[in-house]
Amino acid sequence: MRELMGKEVEVITADIVYRGILVEVGETEVYIRSESGWLAIPVANVAEIKPVE
């Protein structure tokens, strides 16, 4: 996961795909900086984190 830090990623949950710069993956939340601001996504909801191609 560290190789994705600072890069543009897609964070995929069951309901939505978030896109932004991966800032941190904590124990409880994934933090990304998107065009609309900072997002904190609960780790329990995350199905996949992948780089934007």
Question: Topology of this protein?
Answer:
Elements (H helix, E strand, L loop, with lengths): L7 E6 L3 E9 L3 E6 L2 E6 L3 E6 L2
Antiparallel strand pairs: 1-2, 1-5, 2-3, 3-4
Structure description:
This protein is mostly beta strands and 53 residues long. The protein is built from no helices and five strands. It has strands at 8-13, 17-25, 29-34, 37-42, 46-51. A five-stranded antiparallel sheet has the order 4-3-2-1-5, with no helix packed on it. The radius of gyration is 10 Å and the shape is globular. The chain starts with 7 loop residues before the first strand and ends with a strand. The model has no long low-confidence stretch (mean pLDDT 96).
